[in-house]
Specification:
By secondary structure, this protein is of the alpha/beta class. It has two domains: 137 residues, Alpha-Beta Complex (Aspartate Aminotransferase, domain 1); 278 residues, 3-Layer(aba) Sandwich (Aspartate Aminotransferase, domain 2), CATH 3.40.640.10. It is built from 15 helices and 16 strands. A seven-stranded mixed β-sheet has the order 4-11-10-9-8-5-6, with helices on both faces. The protein has a five-stranded mixed β-sheet with strand order 7-12-13-16-15, covered by helices on one side. The longest helix is centred in the C-terminal third of the chain and has 23 residues. The two termini are 28 Å apart. Bound molecules: pyridoxal-5'-phosphate (PLP). The site of pyridoxal-5'-phosphate has 14 residues, from α5.
């Protein structure tokens, strides 16, 4: 039977199993491999998932970094249900409803500096496109329409729309689409240096890599550069923590040349780094900031872009009254059900003192994850806050070790996201020390099983 033929699960398997796996073309998935040996999740509660074999696994990456408050939160379910019963949808253009204003106010109470103007999107990729467009619209409004270049960085992930793909720096995401990408984008070097091996926290070396931006300003004309976008800590490529002084230097160069600094906080936002935003953790305030994922605890798509007040003022105040000031928006921008989830999440952050809880757990997690350093197939570990990247030694070709190891861990009861040969661990904010112990113990077992099987 080839992998495209219909694969049927027999009634002897657990419930919730579809008859055919052929029709759904899965995203970022080795489809043929998956369909031969599927991994289906049937239930999620608190920190645990159940798969279609009935096996319980601990969720060690908070889904895709988006469920840090745990699965099946009653407060969120109740808020969503109530909202759907009252107002299920309203057009977000030229009209609105109270909730989105309330959520924007709550978000602005946590954003750094005066990033108090919140534009909603439908997820992280949309938030990035929005941030890029706002940066262009801002310069145009200021009479600097020639600023068209955007500076990104190697090994960055900014989502999968054309703007995000263009400024992102993951080679496999770009190769096929080269003909589609935005003109004028240049990439700084990534910040992962060979001497950053087994460094927990910010590396001491590498701040000088920010000078790439200064070189672009000189080589392309700083007056042509609209924005520089970075993840304060690169998440999807395996926790690349900014070297000490690096983000500060980017800020200085942007200020010097009138370039807008965009922090993509889709992963790092809402506590992952220890402070509410990475911006506060690393002491650098961007001009524009994106967020998504944890904003709704992952249960309904929602993203947001926080902008400095002067950016909003330049675009909005410069336009004649009574006309639309920014030609941009989405049918599902801050729909009531997403907002209800977002407000419930804000309630939980407050009630459970989540940000302080994360801060307290960070040292325990970092020590625990670095204990895996002694395993022979572990090539490197990096970590900051409640996030870490554990690199496997490459086996024959990039990605094989990471994927095989991930499958052994899944079978061994710990679930997470792997990118290439990096296992990305991002525990939930509601984790207790015993959960960290369980994650690390199961990782050790999974990695050792992988190592043993590899040698045989
Ligand atoms: C930093 C960053 N930006 C953007 C995105 C894209 O978000 P989404 O998948 O919600 O479109 C991601 C997703 O992982 C991300 O990590």
């Amino acid at each position: 039977m080839n992998s495209f033929s219909i694969i049927k699960f027999m009634a002897s398997e657990k419930t919730n199993i579809p008859n055919s796996l052929n029709e759904h073309w899965m995203p970022f998935t080795a489809n043929r491999d998956f369909k031969e040996n599927p991994r289906l999740i049937t239930e999620a509660k608190g920190l645990y998932l159940k798969n279609h074999h009935g096996k319980t696994m601990i969720d060690a990456s908070s889904g895709l970094f988006c469920n840090p408050l745990g699965h099946g939160r009653k407060e969120i379910i109740n808020a969503i249900t109530k909202q759907l019963e009252t107002l299920d949808y309203t057009q977000p253009f030229q009209q609105g409803f109270g909730g989105s204003f309330e959520l924007a106010t709550k978000i602005s109470q946590h954003t750094p500096g005066n990033l108090n103007r919140i534009f909603f999107s439908t997820g992280g990729s949309d938030a990035v496109e929005t941030a890029i467009k706002i940066s262009i619209a801002y310069h145009k409004a200021k009479g600097q329409g020639q600023r068209f270049r955007i500076v990104g960085r190697e090994r960055a992930y900014h989502g999968m729309h054309v703007g995000g793909t263009s400024v992102g720096g993951m080679v496999n995401n770009v190769k096929t689409y080269a003909s589609l990408l935005m003109p004028g984008v240049v990439h700084m070097r990534h910040t992962h240096l060979p001497d950053h091996k087994f460094v927990s926290g910010q590396p001491e070396t590498g701040a000088e890599l920010a000078e790439d931006l200064e070189r672009f300003a000189a080589n392309f004309g700083s007056e042509n550069i609209a924005a520089c976008i970075v993840e304060p800590t690169a998440g999807s490529t395996g926790t690349l923590v900014p070297p000490k002084g690096y983000l500060q230097r980017l800020r200085e160069i942007c200020d010097k040349h009138g370039i807008l600094l965009i922090f993509d906080e889709v992963i790092t936002g809402w506590g992952r780094m220890g402070s509410v935003f990475a911006s506060q953790e690393f002491g650098v305030t961007p001009d524009i900031m994106t967020m998504a994922k944890a904003t709704t605890n992952g249960v309904v798509p929602l993203g947001a872009v926080a902008c400095k007040e002067e950016i909003y003022d330049a675009i909005v105040e410069n336009a004649p009254k009574g006309v639309i000031e920014l030609f941009h928006g989405y049918t599902y921008s801050a729909i009531p059900v997403a907002v209800a989830a977002g407000l419930a999440v804000q309630g939980i952050f407050e009630k459970e003192d989540i940000f302080n809880r994360v801060k307290e757990l960070v040292p325990y997690f970092q020590k625990a994850i670095f204990s895996l350093k002694d395993i022979d197939v572990v090539e490197n570990i990096r970590g900051y806050g409640l996030m870490a990247g554990v690199d496997m030694k490459m086996d024959q070709k990039p990605g094989k070790a990471g994927f095989t190891c991930y499958k052994h861990c899944y079978d061994g009861g710990v679930n997470f996201k792997a990118t290439g040969d990096c296992l990305i661990i991002a525990p939930m904010f509601i984790s207790e020390k015993k959960h960290i112990d369980e994650i690390v113990d199961k990782l050790r077992t999974g990695i050792l099983t992988y190592s043993k099987n590899k040698k045989n």
